[in-house]
Amino acid sequence: MGPTSEWDTAAAQAIVEVAGGQVVSAETGRSLRYNTRDSLLNPHFIVYGDASRDWLSYVPR
Predict the structure, then answer these.
(1) What pTM does this model have?
(2) Which residues fall within 8 angstroms of residue 55, CB to CB, at 6 or more apart?
(3) Considering only Cβ atoms within 10 Å of each terminal Cβ, which end of the chain, N or C, has fewer?
(4) How does DSSP classify residue 42?
């Protein structure tokens, strides 16, 4: 796994969200947003389909 940029994930995020999943920052738990920062590199993120599970609890802090 290497660094990804916004253009690597934007289309995939749209598909995941239409299917009922989410793409969220591993640090904040918020959905990834685009064109809001100086850097185009993504933060570490989690993609999941089952929103009933607390996926962020699996991320080591």
Answers:
(1) 0.79
(2) 24, 46, 48
(3) N
(4) P
